[in-house]
Design a protein that fits this description.
Layout lengths: L2 H30 L1 E2 L14 E7 L6 H9 L6 E8 L5 H11 L3 E6 L8 H12 L4 E4 L5 E2 L3 H11 L4 E8 L5 H17 L20 E4 H4 L14 H11 L4 E12 L5 H16 L4 H16 L13 H23 L4 H4 L1 H22 L1 E4 L2 E4 H7 L6
Parallel strand pairs: 1-9, 2-3, 2-5, 3-4, 7-9
Antiparallel strand pairs: 5-8, 6-9, 7-8, 10-11
Helix pairs in contact: 1-11, 6-13, 9-13, 10-13
Length: 394
């Protein structure tokens, strides 16, 4: 074999091995994460009070429908703290109207952001200060929750003495195949890159946190350093999980594909904006070089199997390439089937990978050029954000 043939065969084989290992890890991880709908715990003798804290910044298109789903809950002892965080799009008026109509809803308006805080973290902190529940549920303003969900999760936590529970929600399809493919790659990256299935192991360093559903036992949460410790943490959901795990809390992750839902991205503009904020912060850790390296390495491994189709004179090489592609689709296929995503979003992984990783690389250049990120109308310099970063992922 020539040097070119050896290199192409070796890299194609590397792709097969990498995604064979990836399939094993994904199957193992998904088995560790139980379905919430399969759990039927005994209800507690007395239902503890739950405070649902919903930060909302310019969520006029989503917050009312989301709150309607929350108010259909079967949970008997509940309050909602709806936090309007400096909205300019009519969210404030919707929040007041919802509070006037619903006896269990309290409206909280934030007019100014204190220096040294990210807007959402401050809104969560303000909501926590107003809450009266023994349990706190932090959730986003576009999340829909099925009526039985809260009762089942509280019963589960009380029965198994859990202190922190987060769930993998169903990320709904937009109907745009390319958008779905890119979103699937992002969601899988959070799952596999963070090895979030290890959250229940007190000896493991991994933490989990999905902003759609962060349920914490208040008595334990108040023993942590609190949300002020996370005041400049972009990954606030993972930060809450980190706070609880560092405090020795008993933590758990469940698959809530039948119970909690939202759209991960509604448009390509949202992916771009998300990567400029979360991608640059969480993956790049505010470093351009790390962002470029991550994006290029991800593209490299995603496209390795396709080297098997190069015409380099090795007759059996395409078989190896086909095996690699099948393994890559299988990795994502197992994942999307388990969490309720469209299978086609796994099959279209090359396009999704290209979109996702090029936007991640772009976010590194944008963050480097601007010297920071803009979030919820406020600009935060990179140096300040680095000092406040608590979560290291991946």
């Amino acid at each position: 074999m020539t040097v070119i043939q050896i290199l192409v065969v070796s890299f194609t084989l590397l792709g097969c091995v990498a995604w064979g290992i990836g399939l094993f890890i994904t199957l193992k991880g998904m088995r560790r994460v139980r379905l919430l709908s399969d759990i039927e715990p005994e209800p507690p003798a007395t239902w503890p009070r739950v405070s649902v804290i919903v930060p909302a910044c310019n969520e006029a298109d989503h917050v009312e429908a989301a709150m309607q789903s929350h108010q259909q809950t079967a949970y008997p002892n509940i309050e909602f703290v709806l936090v309007d965080d400096r909205s300019t799009d009519g969210t404030s008026q919707i929040v007041d109207r919802l509070a006037a109509k619903g006896a269990r809803i309290r409206a909280l308006h934030i007019a100014e952001l204190p220096e040294g805080w990210l807007g959402k973290v401050h809104a969560m902190h303000a909501g926590q200060q107003e809450a009266t529940g023994e349990w706190l549920l932090f959730t986003d303003a576009d999340v829909h929750i099925a009526p039985e969900t809260l009762a089942r999760t509280i019963a589960f936590c009380e029965a198994e003495q859990q202190d922190f529970l987060t769930v993998i929600p169903r990320f709904l399809s937009t109907g745009n195949l390319l958008l779905d493919a890119a979103a699937t790659l992002s969601i899988y990256g959070i799952f596999a890159g963070g090895q979030v299935w290890n959250v229940d192991d007190p000896k493991a360093r991994q933490v989990a946190g999905f902003g759609a559903f962060l349920l914490v036992r208040r008595s334990v949460f108040e023993q942590t350093e609190g949300l002020s410790w996370l005041r400049l943490e972009v990954a606030d959901d993972l930060g809450v999980g980190l706070l609880m795990k560092q405090a020795g809390a008993k933590c758990s992750l469940l698959n809530a594909r039948d119970d909690v839902s939202l759209y991960f991205y509604n448009s390509f503009a949202e992916i771009r904006s998300s990567h400029e904020k979360a991608g640059f912060a969480i993956i790049g850790r505010y470093h351009l070089g790390r962002m470029i390296a991550f994006g290029l390495l991800s593209l490299f491994f995603d496209f390795l199997p396709f080297l098997g189709f190069l015409p380099v004179g090795v007759s059996w090489l395409p078989v190896l390439g086909i095996a690699g592609v099948i393994l890559r689709i299988a990795v994502l296929g197992v994942f999307v089937c388990r969490i309720g995503r469209p299978m086609l979003s796994a099959i279209l992984f090359p396009v999704g990978s290209l979109i996702n990783n090029l936007l991640l690389i772009r976010s590194g250049f944008v963050g480097w050029r601007n010297g920071g990120i803009r979030w919820r109308g406020t600009f935060y310099p990179t140096d300040i954000l680095r000092q406040g970063q608590r979560v290291r992922f991946p």
